[in-house]
């Protein structure tokens, strides 16, 4: 069942329930009041006859011509009985009703007459009667008659009975007609609401249909460049369409990035595989090559194998980052890690000197030791590749500690200094909280030509090189800075370009550390290059 159908049925059901509730309440109140009005008229008419009999022994109301109905269409029949229950007088409007025992209603009062035509019995209401009177119901020629009987008592003895009767056929028929009309109104109104709800739901869900069509078209064509047309409304569906377009934009960017990633990875893997395949083919076709040539080919195969191994390891590491793998952090001595990274970096080049600027105190941060060393090696390797031969590379570690002061007051009234106030024993106290904070930054500075401004936004992208013309000479696959940025993020640090220009580029790795992360190393000399 579609959402449009469900909404239409829901609208129709709610409308039917509302109309049925209002109709039943109105119908009950109207019908009940008509039957109660008839009971009141019977009570008044019978009391008039009772007063005449008690006072004069007879009532002239019994002799009044009541053959025709009243102005309200009500026909009244009045009768009187002897103390023994014998019929004595009958009004002219009596159609020939058979005599009945007047004591019957007094012994067994009847329920309200409207209960037969109401769909439910509550709430009940009735016309109040005295202890010597009661209502009853008889049937004559298939029609109900409402009956009211009064026991006439004079000087403590019963002198007779007065009975008033009125037919209920017209009222019963009118009530049933009203019930049928109410049912028709509810049915027609419900059908009308279903049609209107169908149209309203269709109009309201039209943006959702556009979203569905767009999603289906994109799934069929795989064209992530398509967008859903928005009407500019700021309602929920308008915001949904806008969000859907933004999602499509993100998916398109991710798809293009993935395509570039796969293409670059394929290219980077194809190059060493081509070299290795070519050398192996030469060795197979020329088994009698000289030893020097053979060792040269094997060396080239070994270098390309190592290069491909490093590339695969980098790709696996980036895959771990995409999968949300978290690093396990622990306190790490940054000074020691920098010294280890610089020792390994010296093996990469003999054309550069490394200048270290480390503080006297040991600096500790929350990190994973091996990954922090890998990050520093990436920065150092990058500096070596882009610095002219003979230029120095500087590694600097700075840790700045300070106090973060916060004042808090308690109590009410008094001075802010916290001294007691003789006139107010609940003088406020101001508490000063001082928390030590530290900022640790590792900087790696080269002497290269700098990074062009147009390439700055892309340097942390995978497989991106600031100098494509030199990619084969520089080596690598353009994944180093991407990996370094991921490692920094895992350690709650920030890796960024602090400065760049013709005089060189400085990469900065900044940690926001806690006070215990900066501590002196007692009895240990300062670490220097």
From TrEMBL:
Catalytic reaction list: ATP + protein L-histidine = ADP + protein N-phospho-L-histidine
Presence of keyword Membrane: yes
Domain HAMP stretches: 202-256
InterPro entries per the UniProt record, alphabetical: HAMP_dom (IPR003660), HATPase_C_sf (IPR036890), HATPase_dom (IPR003594), His_kinase_dom (IPR005467), HisK_dim/P_dom (IPR003661), HisK_dim/P_sf (IPR036097), Sig_transdc_His_kin-like_C (IPR004358), TCS_sensor_his_kinase (IPR050428)
E.C. number(s) listed in UniProt: 2.7.13.3
Stretches with biased composition (Polar residues): 427-448
Compartments where located: Membrane
A Gene Ontology molecular function term of the record: phosphorelay sensor kinase activity
Top-rank lineage group of the source organism: Bacteria
GO cellular component: plasma membrane
Broad enzyme group: transferase
Main location: membrane
Span of domain Histidine kinase: 264-515
Keywords, sorted A to Z: Kinase, Membrane, Phosphoprotein, Transferase, Transmembrane, Transmembrane helix, Two-component regulatory system
The protein's name: histidine kinase
Native source organism of the sequence: Deinococcus cavernae
């Amino acid at each position: 069942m579609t959402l449009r159908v469900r909404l239409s049925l829901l609208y129709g059901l709610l409308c039917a329930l509302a109309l049925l509730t209002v109709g039943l309440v109105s119908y009950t109140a109207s019908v009940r009041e008509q039957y109660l009005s008839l009971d009141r008229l019977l009570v008044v008419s019978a009391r008039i006859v009772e007063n005449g009999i008690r006072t004069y022994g007879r009532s002239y109301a019994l002799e009044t011509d009541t053959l025709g109905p009243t102005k309200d269409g009500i026909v009244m029949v009045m009768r009187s009985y002897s103390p023994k229950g014998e019929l004595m007088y009958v009004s002219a409007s009596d159609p020939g009703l058979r005599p009945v025992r007047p004591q019957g209603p007094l012994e067994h009062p009847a329920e309200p007459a409207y209960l037969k035509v109401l769909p439910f019995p509550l709430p009940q209401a009735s016309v109040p009667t005295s202890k010597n009177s009661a209502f009853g119901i008889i049937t004559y020629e298939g029609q109900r008659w409402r009956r009211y009987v009064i026991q006439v008592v004079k000087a403590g003895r019963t002198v007779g009975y007065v009975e008033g009767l009125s037919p209920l056929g017209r009222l019963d028929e009118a009530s049933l007609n009203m019930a049928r009309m109410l049912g028709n109104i509810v049915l027609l109104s419900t059908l009308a609401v279903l049609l209107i709800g169908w149209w309203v739901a269709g109009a309201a869900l039209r943006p959702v249909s556009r979203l569905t069509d767009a999603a289906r078209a994109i799934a069929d064509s795989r064209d992530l460049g398509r967008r859903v047309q928005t009407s500019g409304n700021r309602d929920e569906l308008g915001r949904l369409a806008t969000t859907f377009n933004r999602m499509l934009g993100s998916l398109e960017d991710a798809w293009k990035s993935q395509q570039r990633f796969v293409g670059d990875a394929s290219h980077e893997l194809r190059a060493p595989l081509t070299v290795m395949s070519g050398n192996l083919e030469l060795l197979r076709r020329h088994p009698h090559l000289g030893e020097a040539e053979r060792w040269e080919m094997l060396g080239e195969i070994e270098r390309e194998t190592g290069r491909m191994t490093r590339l695969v390891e980098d790709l696996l590491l980036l895959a771990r980052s995409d999968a949300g793998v978290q690093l396990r952090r622990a306190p790490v001595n940054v000074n020691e890690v920098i010294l280890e990274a610089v020792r390994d970096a010296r093996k990469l080049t003999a054309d550069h000197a490394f200048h270290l600027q480390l503080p006297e105190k040991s600096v500790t941060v929350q990190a994973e030791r091996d990954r922090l060393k890998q990050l520093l090696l990436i920065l150092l390797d990058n500096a070596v590749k882009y610095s002219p031969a003979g230029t120095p590379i500087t590694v600097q570690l700075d840790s700045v500690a300070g106090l973060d002061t916060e004042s808090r007051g308690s109590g009410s009234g008094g001075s802010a200094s916290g001294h007691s106030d003789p006139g107010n024993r609940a003088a406020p106290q101001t508490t000063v909280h001082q928390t030590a904070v530290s900022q640790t930054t590792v900087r790696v500075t080269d002497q290269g030509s700098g990074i062009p401004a147009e390439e700055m936004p892309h340097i942390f992208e995978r497989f991106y090189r600031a100098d494509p013309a030199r990619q084969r000479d520089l080596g690598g696959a353009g994944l180093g800075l991407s990996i370094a940025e991921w490692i920094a993020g895992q350690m709650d640090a920030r890796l960024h370009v602090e400065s760049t220009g013709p005089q060189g580029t400085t990469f900065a790795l900044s940690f926001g550390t806690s006070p215990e992360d900066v501590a002196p190393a007692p009895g240990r000399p300062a670490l220097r290059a």
